[in-house]
Amino acid sequence: MGLDSIYFNQIREGKKIYEVRIFDEKRKKIRLLDKIIFRNKGDPRLTFEARFIELSYFPDFREAIEEVGIKKVLPSTQSLEKGVRIYNSFNDGGYEKDAKKYGVLRMRFQLL
Question: Given 68, 79, 89, 106, which residue has the most CB atoms within 10 angstroms?
Answer without folding.
Answer: 106
